[in-house]
Design a protein that fits this description.
By secondary structure, this protein is α+β, with helices and mostly antiparallel strands. 16% of the residues lie in helices and 59% in strands. An 8-stranded antiparallel beta barrel has the order 1-2-3-4-5-6-7-8. It starts with a helix and ends with a strand.
Length: 188
């Protein structure tokens, strides 16, 4: 399943590069497709490093001006949570659908159309579902994305997000809400 997911993300990215190249000539604010892979870290009682798990995301985004944009994203894969008694972690599967607002901080400071590096601030809301615990939750998220321009049609990005979900998300009722953090690398 992991290999199929990676191949699907790469195929979608490759297909959209040619569409993006054609659209960019006629539209200064085209749509983008983004694929990311990385790691998630759930807060909890396990020893540091135990609750790290793989994560992935696919998003469609558009900047409506050089500074402001939005994206629709589907993310998730595996989560891990600690156990108070053994300091071990157990895993579960989850998925999230989010709507994120994007603010290109680099363009806000100084507008420059072909910048080598852009820093964007991400704020969003969404819906999260864990499949192992059958728990659904609304969520909020906040993060940063750094994008390195590789050529006219492709960016390499690194993204860090903090996600807040309901307390039942990880299968334990121990806080007022649960948090998990993601660090992802990807192509846009």
């Amino acid at each position: 399943m992991k290999l199929k997911f990676i191949i699907t993300v790469m195929a979608l990215t490759a297909a959209c590069i040619s569409v993006h190249a054609q659209e960019k000539k006629t539209n200064p604010n085209p749509w983008f497709i983004q694929g990311q892979m990385g790691a998630s870290y759930s807060t909890g009682d396990a020893a540091f490093g135990k609750p790290i798990a793989p994560t992935g995301a696919i998003a469609v985004e558009k900047y409506f001006s050089p500074v402001w944009g939005a994206r629709l994203a589907i993310s998730g894969w595996r989560g891990r949570v600690g156990s108070e008694s053994s300091k071990q972690a157990h895993g579960f599967y989850y998925g999230a659908a989010t709507v994120d607002g994007l603010m290109n901080f680099s363009q806000l400071i100084k507008k420059y159309p072909e910048r080598l590096f852009d820093l964007s601030i991400i704020a969003g809301v969404g819906f999260n579902r864990t499949y192992s615990h059958n728990v659904s939750s609304f969520m909020g998220r906040l993060g940063l994305q750094g994008a390195f321009r590789l050529n006219d049609t492709l960016d390499f990005n690194i993204e860090a997000l903090a996600n807040g979900v309901s307390d039942r998300w990880n299968g334990r009722d121990d806080h007022s809400f649960d948090t998990y953090f993601t660090l992802s690398l990807g192509l846009t």
